[in-house]
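Fold it.
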Amino acid sequence: MAECQATGTKPAHALPAAEVLTRFGTSLHEGLTNAEAQRRRARFGPNMIPAKERAGAFTLLLHQLASPVVYLLAAAGGLSLYFGDWREAAAVIVVLAVNTGLGFVTELRAARSVEGLRALGTRSARVRRGGHRQVLAAEDLVPGDIVLVEGGDAVPADIRLVEASSLGADESTLTGESVPVDKSADAAAADAGLAERSSMLFRGTLVTRGSAAGVVVATGAATELGGVSRLVEQAEPDASPLERSLERLSGQMVWGVLTLAVLLAALGVATGKELRLMTEASIALAVAAIPEGLPVVATLTLARGMWRMARSNALIERLSAVETLGATTVILTDKTGTLTENRMTVRRLALPAGELELIEQGCGGSPEAERLLRVAVLCNDASLGQGRGEGSGDPMERALLQAGRSAGLDREALVRDLPPVRKHAFDASTRMMATFHASGGRFVVAVKGAPEAVLAASRRTVGGERDQPLDDVTRDLWRRRVEDLGASGLRVIACAEGTVDEADAPPFEELTFLGLVGLEDPAREDVPQAMAACRQAGIRVVMVTGDHAVTARSIARAVGLAGPGDRVVEGVPGAGPLDGLEDVAVFARVSPAEKLSLVRAYQQRGAVVAMTGDGVNDAPALKQADIGVAMGKRGTDVAREAAAMILLDDAFPTIVGAIREGRVIFDNIRRFVAYLLACNLSEVMVVGLAVLSALPLPILPLQILYLNVVTDVFPAFALAMGEGRDDILERPPRDPKEPILARPQWVRIALHAAVMTAATFGALAVAEFWLARDRATVVTVTFLTLAFAQLWQMFNMRAAGSRPLRNEVTRNPWVWAALLLCTALLVGPACLPSVGTVLGLVPLDWIGWTLVLSASLAPLAVVQLGTVVVGALKASVCEGLNRPGIFGGSNS
């Protein structure tokens, strides 16, 4: 399709590589200059495909109106208008406007927050510009850029290959072909179909193996991906199960109460009551049950939680991950960079003649050490940059380059004398990498990789003036030396060398084994504390690594992961769901396929598994895990795409922090949902009992609307802002199948609502029969009693087992702010005649206010006393059983 943005009659995939470079005015080893790249950027624009337009403000505003809550409120307002009660109709309109406005602002901010979070994960690309390797944002690529790719990368543009080594790509997003296809730098036929263009890499596809360098021939909308409209459209993310549960709960309540209101009105009319009176009562009942603040506060809580996690270096890709995090029971973690600092240093060389402590002794003029380091420098994809800069590439390879530089072996000087002609990229199946270098008509093969793999491929070893045969006895000696280095906590790789006559000769035959390199990657200082937190939280941590068992055991003990009774196992046994392996702390020498089976085995035992990974081969296991965690710094694009969470700092403690935040978010949602339902149920009970007992309405529909705006929204917002209990990681993970509101929560909601209802009717009885106040005063007393009882209800939302006066609710400054604001909004109308007339309220004397305060505080006192009594009874019956009391807080 649009494969080439430069002029030319023949498509780039059919041209020789040299001619493509000429057409695009670039050089494989130099690339474009920065000035030329800027000119092309101005001409071709950014390397971006026009995406589906983000949701506009008007669309989000309309979305607020598409809700059963809105429909029911509108119907109530219409009926009020029909019966000529313009004040109630106007109040309904005001409530609709406030509810819609709050929902609109919250959803708009949440939508923009998600867009901002996605921007944190902007793709990057490795390029050559001005002769230097650089890492750029993918959108800055222009036609003519030289791009370097390797296994695990997402292709950032349409690229014509110039060099390729063992390259394969998954092009299923474009061609539908599920099997990865082989790629090479050889020109394809001019009329080749998309799937047959073996000389091309296309934007949006994935490099599955090997490495390559190529020239960008199309960017942005001109790419093949840009020409496929179905791939251009980016669907909006689905609502998480938690959001769907909340929406379902809200809808069920609305329609359930609507049915009840209709039946109530019909019953009243059938028994001879006035239609207008029963309609007014039905409107009051329906309005009382609507949880106006539920969707607004839920959106705010999830969006705020995502941002809090992002500030703690945990980028949540899917909202469903938030609720799953709190239920995690097993973490399968890799070692390098997660439990360790990923700051590799070559510490020791194991040579046939002995060992060298490189940091203390240097090479000491040893020819064997120099030969070993020369191979380690040549067989390398990293760069050190200028001076002692960080450079780019794998930390282990950078450490090898630094060791070579310390020994006087600079890579640039070596490749001038031994120019590279071919590379066999590291492959998980061979566990080795090889590079071919021209040398006087023949070719030197430099090899590095896993010690056992290099040993198996070697036929000779260094010895004296001539290389010696590598017999079985010597191989066993080297294997023991590998174990000794690993037991010291060192990561071990082996190097070998060969000489061949042809550049296309097999790379791993007739090699000479040169020795071992021991690299040190110290454990992160903050990991032991995180491990202790996991144990307290009932979360089992298991190291899954491709490293040698002795190395893995050393690191596991250093970070507090493995104890005296824990085992270290090499590979993953294929029998059953890990029967008898519950005491395994480390799985070493694990292949990518075994990682996937390991995740499935734990899941078969009912575990909720979080799995960390960074490579293309980790993607299946990340996808299978309940929470796939990709590394943000060193992770491949494939791993990031498969994961539900990305660690921006690659640190294990960040996972623990995210799990804590996930538990806090779930608890806060459960807390404010229980609060809202208890308050709304108390209103329903007050209206319903009054109608059934033929009493006048103790609270008017207009007052209920005002009450719901005040007590539904601001206190719920405050409860959603809670920081969580200090001991939230000291309790076991929750069952992921547990609903937001289980039976214990429903029992507490009903009891709390009943106590508030009783207090409201008690105030009504005292005001009407004992104090003999007029009807307007009685309604004012019942309204304020119920309103303040709902405000004090916030303090009943503390967790079971927490202190009555100092807990996660009382320490929440948002709760006190909401309390002050709502008090002002309730006292104001009762004291200002102009406002009170609209709501049907009258000023109260000191006796009325005393009745309101004492009656509204009664439910708080009853619930708190019940919590203490039930907690004491439970403790005496079954000490240590962590289950909530009947009157207890909001958490189970």
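Confidence is low (pLDDT under 50) at residues 116-121, 229-239, 880-892.
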